[in-house]
């Protein structure tokens, strides 16, 4: 009821908007990465050179806990990621996925393979 009522207001005060966002919306993976400054991560943009590094790292160190999946939902094994486009497609699709927790497999994989450090 409160969310429905407040979804129709202009949220002129930042506090009102923050309350609405916290109680009435769900984070997606990319948004959670962006707003959780303690993670020191940002999602990769399409032309970022870090994609090559992340693909190579996936092929050398992916685990059951951070594997991505193909279009049929089957895990792509370590050393089986053929191209950057597959990784990018997974990342861009899952960026919109619902954030559940920091231990959720989708979040772990997204954080590992689809982001870069803000400290570089």
Give keywords.
single chain; 2 strands; 120 residues; 46% helix; two-stranded antiparallel sheet; mainly alpha
Give a verbal description of the structure.
- It contains six helices and two strands, in the order αααβαααβ.
- Helix content is 46%, strand content 5%.
- The protein is elongated.
- The chain has one domain.
- It starts with a helix and ends with a strand.
Summary?
This protein has helices at about 1-5, 15-25, 30-35, 50-60, 85-95, 105-115, and strands at about 40-45, 115.
Structural class: mainly alpha
> What does the largest sheet look like?
2 strands, antiparallel
Number of helices: 6
Helix content bin: 40-55%
- The arrangement of helices and strands along the chain is HHHEHHHE
Q: How many domains would you count in the coordinates? A: 1
Blueprint of the fold:
Elements (H helix, E strand, L loop, with lengths): L1 H5 L7 H11 L4 H7 L5 E3 L6 H12 L22 H11 L10 H9 L1 E3 L3
Antiparallel strand pairs: 1-2
């Amino acid at each position: 009821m409160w969310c429905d009522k407040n979804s129709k207001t202009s949220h002129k005060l930042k506090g009102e908007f923050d309350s609405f966002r916290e109680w009435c919306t769900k984070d997606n993976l990319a948004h959670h990465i962006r707003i959780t400054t303690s993670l020191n991560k940002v999602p990769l943009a399409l032309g970022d050179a870090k994609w090559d590094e992340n693909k190579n790292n996936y092929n050398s160190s992916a685990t059951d806990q951070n594997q991505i999946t193909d279009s049929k939902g089957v895990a792509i094994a370590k050393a089986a990621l053929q191209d950057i486009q597959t990784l990018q497609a997974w990342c861009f699709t899952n960026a919109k996925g619902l954030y559940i927790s920091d231990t959720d497999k989708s979040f772990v994989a997204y954080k590992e393979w689809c982001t870069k450090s803000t400290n570089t």
